[in-house]
Amino acid sequence: MLFGLRKLLGVATFALIVVLLGPKLFVLFDNPKNATVPAKLFEAREYVLGKSVPVLHRYVPTNIAGSDRSDWILIGLAIVVTIFSGAVAQRAQTAQNRRLLRKSAQAWRRKEGVKPGSRLDAELETTLRMAESDKAVNRQELLRVFAETKKKLDTFGREVAFLAIDVVGSVGMKAGEDPASIQYDFEEYRKLVERIFRARGVLKTAWTPDGVMACFAHVEDACQSGKDVIKSLKVFNSEVKLSKADFTVRCGVNAGLVYFDDSTPLETISDRVIDVAGHMQKNAEPNTVLVARKIIEPLRQLEEFTHTSQVIDGYEASVWRDKAA
């Protein structure tokens, strides 16, 4: 709207220049008022000056070097107003673009799961502030900033796999048991799981009292870790634990592109890839590994998994069971 107003003022200023200065050119001709165009210009000039000069005299002096220069002063004021309106329009547009940039960046943060305070968040904030400090933040600038931001996001994006494990019936296992024995059993169980994870090159873990979410660089490592935990529970239940109830677990695996950096705790990462892994675990049977079928199709040990009729979060699921059980 402001740019439209500035354009109208520019047209009006040009018309004012023609009306006020045009007749000065025709005074060089003989009897200019006898011709239609010059006559119209002289009439228009007299009308504009007649309406504006009395008002102009109230506020500014118009005599310069002994001559009335109202026409030139009017033109000068019109030019100043036009330039000023253009500057206001440009500032308003820049402010709007900055707001759009910030709003779009916040939406991008939420979509990509960028956590406040993370190194990636700091990188994005630096880029945004540099763009906002520019005097002319236009649409091309927005596109440039988002292109740079996308490159930075890509450097933090990794194809990783997530393994969710939960102890089945953990509340019931603790009922009627000696608290010291229960504490010992769960501490030893955690040590067992962490040893298996380290052997498979775990990247990050996030523990709850009776469950864990682990991040691995490869789907094979996530799946094999789940298998190893289930297989290791046979010896654990017979030789290590003190409580009566045996430990059984449910495992869920999923993989995909997730944005995070090495300093980001796993529990602060919010991503659908992780959510699906958790839902796979919740729908798994005891002592099985339930996995989104699409992520294991390239694996060499695909034959170890059995296709199921389960569809979880839109993904067909396959299951691994210990044949020796």
TrEMBL record:
Protein name listed in UniProt: Uncharacterized protein
Annotated transmembrane regions: 72-89
Source organism of the structure: Bradyrhizobium jicamae
SUPFAM superfamilies recorded: Nucleotide cyclase (SSF55073)
Keywords from the named record: Membrane, Transmembrane, Transmembrane helix
